[in-house]
Here is the input.
Amino acid sequence: MSRLQRCVGSVAAVLILAALGWGPAAGPQAQAQTAAQRLVIGIGSIPNTPDPHLDSTANALPAYATIFEKLIESDGRGGFRPVLAKSWRLVDTTTWEFTLQSGVRFHNGQSLEPGDVKFSIERVLNPATRSPWLGRISAIERVDVTGPSTFRIVTRGPFAPLLQGLTVVDILPASYFQERGPAGFATAPVGTGPFTFVEWLRQDRMVVRANAGYWRGRPRLDEIVFRAIPEDATRVAGLETGELDVAVLVPPEQVERLRGRGLQLAAVNLGQGMVINLRSNVPGPIADRRVRQALNYAIDKEAIFQSILRGHGRVLNGQVVGPDAVGHNPVLRPYPYDVARAKRLLAEAGFGGGVEVTFHGTIGRYTKDKEIEELIVGQLAEVGVRARLEIVEGGVYIQRHIARQLGPLWTWAWQYFPAMDADLPLNFFTCAGVGNFFCSRDFDEVLQQSRQTMDAQRRQQLLQRAALIVREEAAVIFLVQTPGIYAAQQRVRGFTWRPDYLMDLHRAEVVRR
Amino acid sequence: MLAYLGRRAGDALLAVLGVSTIAFLAVRVSGDPVALLITEYATPEDIARVRRMLGLDLPLWQQYLRFLADALQGNFGESLRFLKPAAPLVYGALPATVSLAAAALTIALLVGLPLGVVAGARRGSLVDGAAVAMATLGQSIPYFWLGILLIMLFAVHLGWLPAFGSETLRHLVLPALTLSVTPMARIARIVRSGMVEVLTHDYVRTARAKGLRNARVLVRHALPNVAIPVVTILALDFGTLLGGAVVTETIFAWPGVGRLVVQAIQSRDYPVVQAVVFYLAMAFVVINLLMDLAYARLDPRIRYQ
Here is the structure.
C-alpha cells in the first residue's frame, strides 16, 4: 500500500469511527417508550433547565406547566381562576389570605402544604436564586403560614398587581428540594402537575409521563415529548412526515397548504400586542402628539391583518392588550386608516413638507416582522414620512431598547402573557419606566392609583383610563395582537394553545384508528 | 523535529491567546450580557445587581485578567442562560458536532476524491465539464437552502429519512450530506487541478511508457502528488465546516456546538461564547499542526529542522 493510501485509509477510518461512535446519545427512555398515547410537540426551544424558577422564556412555559402548577392562572377573559389556591381574599390593603386546595400531592407523594408555597415564593425572591421572575413579585415582603391549608402574603405597601405576579411562580416541594439541593432537584424535578418528569436533553427534548395520581384526574395522554426545533420550515416538515403530532408557530403562509395535506390548523391570539414604539420624550417631530396620531392614521392595520397575517391574530383596539387581559378597555377602537387626515395633522404640526425618521426593526423576532415593517415604510411614505428602516440583530435589540438607543420608531411586542394583565406593559409607559420613551403626568397618576387600588373593579376602571390616555396621546402605533398558529395531525384531539402561551394538555388525546 | 514541534506549540499558544482575547473583547463590545438575564420588565436596581454579581462593574482590564486566569484553569464562568459552568456545556455538545463534521468529511472525501481524479484525467471531457459545474455549484449553494431542500425531498416527499433530530444513524444522513457539499466541491476542484498539472510530468510519462494500466498510473503515481494540497484544504476547511455546522445544526435541530454558540451569541451568553471560541481555536490549531506533520509522511522530501 502506498503512503497515500495508508494515510487516506487511516483518516477515513478515524472519520467513520467518529461519525458512528460519537453520535449524540439519545435518551434510553425516549427510545424504548412507544406509548399508545404519546404526543410529540415541535416547538422552537425547550426549557434551558428543568428548574422552572430559572427560565422565563415563552417556549419554556408550556413544558413547565405539565410538571408544575401555580397558585392561580389567567382565565383568558380578563380574570384569574384558581389552580393550587382554592380561594383568596384581601385582609387589608397589604395582606392577602389564600386557602390551598385539599388533597393535592406532589409526584413524590408528599402533600402540598402552605410551607411549600412560602418556600417557592421566597426562593424566587432570593437574589441568589437568579430567578428572572423576581421582578414580577418583588413587592412581596413576606409569606406567613397561618394554618394547615392557609397562608398570607404581605406586600410592601398596597400592591394591586400581586395576582398577576403569582401566575408565574411554580410551587415546588420545600423539603424535597432542600434534601436534594438545586442541582439534584434539576435532575429529578417534582411538582404537582398532570405529568411527571422523565428526561430533559439540552437543546433537544423534554419528556414527561402521565401522573396517575393527579389531583384533577389522570390525563388521557401517557407521554408528551417536547422537541426543540428552532427552524420553522423543519417544524412544518416534521409535521408532514408524521414525526410530530403538533407544531406551534407555523408561518401564516403555510396554513392553506398544510390544511390541504389533511392537517388540523388553528390559531390563538397570544397575549402579545405588536406595535411600533414612538420615542416622544425627546425633542423632535415625534414629541408632537399630532405627528404621532398622524402615524397611526397613516397605517392600514387591516392590510397587515388580512394580507400579511392572512386573517390570523387581531387588530389591536387602540391599546396594547386584547380583550383577554385585565385592564382591556372595551370602548376603544383602532385609529381608522385615513391618509387625508394623517396629512392634515402633519401639516398642522408644521411637517407638511415631509419628515424623516429612523425606524429600527427586527427580522424573525416577531411573526412576519420584516414584512410588516416594509409595509409600514411604504404607507408612511404616502403621507410624506420617510422612515429609514434599520434592522438590528436580535441579541442587542432588548439591550438597545433598555438603553433608549432605538427609534424614534421601533418594532416592539408588548408581552402580557402568562399573567394577561395590562399592568405589565403599561408600567413601561411611565415617565420613570425602564427604557422609557413616553411621559404623561396624567397617565403616571392614573397607573399609580391603579397599582394601589385593591378593589378589582375600580382597578379595572383605572387601567382602562390609562389605556385611554395611551391611545389619545398616540404613545405608539397600534398594530396587531400576534397570532400563534399551530397545526396538528387529525389523530390529535382536545389540544388547544391558549392566549397565556400555555397548552391545554390535560384533556388532549391521540385517537388511533 | 523536537525543536520544530516546540516552536509550533509556541505559535499555537499565541494563536489561541489572540483568538480568546478577540472573543473576550468582541462579546463585550457587541452587546450587554446583562440584557439576557433580565426581562424587559426589569428595574434599574435589578440590572445593577446582576452587573455586580457578574463582575461586569469592574474595569475592562481587570475583567480581562480575571478571564485569563480562569481560562488557564479551564474555567470560563457560568453560562448566563443555563446557569451551569460553560466548559462542560461545550464538551457536552462537542460529540454531536464531531460526529456530524466527521460524517460530512467522509462523504466529501468519498465523492470529491474520485470525482476530481476522473475529471483531471479526462480533462475537457463531458465528465470533466459536469464535475466542474458540480464543484462550482457545490461551493455556492447556501447550506440553509440545501438543507431545507433535502428535507423536502428525502423526508417529506420520499419519506426515506427523518426530517430532524439526532437519535439514530439515519438521522445523521441529511445533515451530513448538507454539510459535505462545500468541502466535497473544494476537494474535487483541488484534486482535478492537481491531476491536470501532475499528469504532464515526466514520471507519469515514464510510468505510461512502462506499460502500466491507466488506473494504476493515476492512483499510484499521480494521486500521491496531489495529496498535499488536499490535506491542506481539509485542515483549512475545518473552519468552514464549523461555520456550516452552525446553520446545519439549526435546520436539523441537531444539538451540537454550532447551535449552542449561535444561541449563546444571540443571547449574549458570553461565558459560553468564550469557551466555544477557546476550544475551537485549540482544535483548529491542533488540526493544522497535525496536518503539517502529515506533510512529512506524504512527501519524503519534506524535513522539519
